[in-house]
# Entry
Amino acid sequence: MALMILGTKGGVYLLKSDAGRTKWTQGGPFLKGQAVGGVAIDNRNGVTLLAGADIPTPSFPPSPRKAGIFRSEDLGQTWTPSTPMRIVKVWTIEPAPAHSPKVVYAGCEPASVFRSADGGATWTENEALSAQRAAEKWPPGGGGLCLNSIIFDETNPMRMWTSVSVGGVRYTSDGGKSWRLVQQGMVEDCPDRGPEEKPEAHAWIHGCIHHLAAPRGDGRRIYLKNHCGTYRTDDGGGQWVDISAGLPWRGGFALAADAHNADRVYVIPAQHGKEGFNTPRVNDALRVFRSDDAGRTFTGHGDGLPTTGEHHIYRDAMTTDGLKPSGIYFGTRAGTVYASTSDGTGWQQIAGGLPAVMSVRCVEVA
# Structure
């Protein structure tokens, strides 16, 4: 069966499936009332839930709230805050691959990477990347100066990729001692921007990375959404190829890779607001576009998805579960969650009436 964790603007929710992933039971909200950014399920040794939210700092008089990470080892019944983190918000949480069994990473705002070597109880900031951010004066994107994605090399614990809005794709081959920018091939302006959008407003377009996704493996194949395009790299970021041609719009956030098929990627393209900075949206028919040839062609699928309304999907709110066949899941700002176990060709709504869904993760559990 599968276990899903949802980070929303009103707490954490859990969804647990039956063996066929056709029926789901809902639990929560946990951390009720909290705006929860990144979430994760660490199922490498038991099940630990991780959620990024505000953590009260004990003092008198009360001091401002600080963001950090909560842990639960009893499926959300109790939560323990981790050590304090000098951040504004947690955007993404990723347990490391099997080569680093107790290691967890978090991407935060202002753009930074934190590492835990004890399953998320204590955290240490990667000083090299934070120093690079300060020295280069990375500007914030429309949603803030966020480090929003982390990709691992499952064969080499020293190699990792991160994406920053607006700091580009940053890669380390020495375990985080140094980082370099890897985004050769990305266009520096929106080819389809409207006449009302000023060119100077898009001077940073290639560095405003919305999301990264990758199949399991060594990190050579990575998919990417930036402010104005969808891309693929076959060499770990040395060269990026624009694969936006088969999609109706270049904008959007939602992107997910099949864990087992490196040529299969899922994208929900969306339109930017009139000035280019509003949250990308889909008007009327909502479709998920699937490519089986690494982005050379795409096919849109909407069976079971709404055909009217305005739909917003945040950058961390789409995922796959790693099972066979893969389950694909996404949540919306309207508080609905959709699932497909048919390779994205058919969809069902498995939750609704929730607060805006910010992040989604799903894994296999016993």
User: Anything to note?
Assistant: The radius of gyration is 19 Å. Residues 110 and 145 are 5 Å apart (CA to CA).
